[in-house]
Design a protein that fits this description.
Elements (H helix, E strand, L loop, with lengths): L3 H14 L7 E4 L3 H15 L5 E4 L2 H9 L13 E6 L3 E2 L5 E2 L6 H10 E9 L12 E5 L4 H14 L11 E2 L2 E2 L7 E5 L7 H8 L5 E4 L1 E2 L5 E5 L5 E5 L6
Parallel strand pairs: 1-2, 1-3, 3-6, 6-13
Antiparallel strand pairs: 4-5, 5-12, 7-10, 7-11, 8-9, 13-14
Helix pairs in contact: 1-2
The structure holds ribulose-5-phosphate (5RP).
The site of ribulose-5-phosphate has 18 residues, from helix 2 and helix 4.
Subunit structure: Homodimer.
InterPro entries: NagB/RpiA_transferase-like, Ribose5P_isomerase_typA_subgr, Ribose5P_isomerase_type_A
Pathway: Carbohydrate degradation; pentose phosphate pathway; D-ribose 5-phosphate from D-ribulose 5-phosphate (non-oxidative stage): step 1/1
């Protein structure tokens, strides 16, 4: 069954596909909203649009290939023109929590490789303050329990209270990311000074990357169930 949220995601995906131009090297995000974009992009490719994509996950790679979108990688094309991705939460500055789909590491690398990053969302993910969505933190399997202890120590030192962090499971199985790592999901309720927290988390040995995306988005497309969408520009002086 198609929900109103699905319709909003499709509207955002269609709007983002209209931002793509011939010759562009594109970052292709992960998750259902990004996949709505990939499907809309594939329709434009079928109509003759000439682009090449770098996928942020094996799931996106498989989808793009199945729809006839040409792919490359960052070793061949280290600079991208446009990255399009989704988010789990977006605050009024465009800062985000990402990683609900376990692809945050490649998503951050690809967003940073892109001249412009456009984030697709529906109204339900726009929040006044980040933190209700549990913050994903990608950790190396080696020493994960010790890394987790250090993460918990850092967060408690900042005054956060939360249950002991556990690694993400799906269908009872430990989730392993495309880069072979594990994920912690930590519900912090309301994150204060997300920029500092993002930097400090990445100082912990064993933390590969965290799901706080600070000043990564250049623009946001908000899709609506009626099929309309709005493009909002952010951080015009950022780069
Ligand atoms: O960060 C992500 C994957 O790591 C996704 O962008 C995020 O989880 C949103 O997913 P969806 O579009 O399915 O709601």
């Amino acid at each position: 069954m198609t929900t109103t949220q699905d319709l909003a995601k499709q509207a955002a995906g269609r709007a983002a596909a209209q931002l793509c131009r011939d010759g562009m090297r594109l970052g292709l995000g992960s998750g259902s909203t990004s996949h709505a974009f990939v499907r809309a992009l594939a329709e434009r490719v079928a109509d003759g649009l000439d682009v090449v994509g770098v996928p942020t996950s094996t799931a996106t790679r498989d989808l793009a290939l199945s729809l006839g979108i040409r792919l490359t990688d960052l070793d061949t094309d280290p600079r991208l023109d446009l990255a399009v991705d989704g988010a789990d939460e977006l605050d009024p500055h465009g800062d985000m929590i990402k990683g609900g789909g376990a692809a945050l590491l490649r998503e951050k690398i690809i967003a940073r490789a892109a001249e412009r990053t456009v984030i697709l969302t529906d109204e339900s993910k726009l929040v006044p303050q980040l933190g209700r969505f549990p913050l994903p933190i990608e950790v190396l399997p080696f020493g994960w329990a010790s890394t987790t202890r250090l993460v918990a120590e850092l967060l408690r030192g900042h005054g956060y209270e939360f249950p002991d962090p556990a690694r993400r499971l799906k269908d009872g199985e430990l989730v392993v990311t495309d880069s072979g790592n594990h994920l912690l999901d930590i519900g912090l309720t309301a994150i204060r000074d997300a920029a500092t927290l993002a930097l400090e988390l990445n100082q912990i040995p064993g933390v590969v990357e965290n799901g706080l995306f600070i000043q990564v988005a250049d623009a946001v497309v908000v899709g609506r169930p009626d099929g309309s969408s709005e493009l909002r520009e952010l951080h015009p002086q950022r780069r």
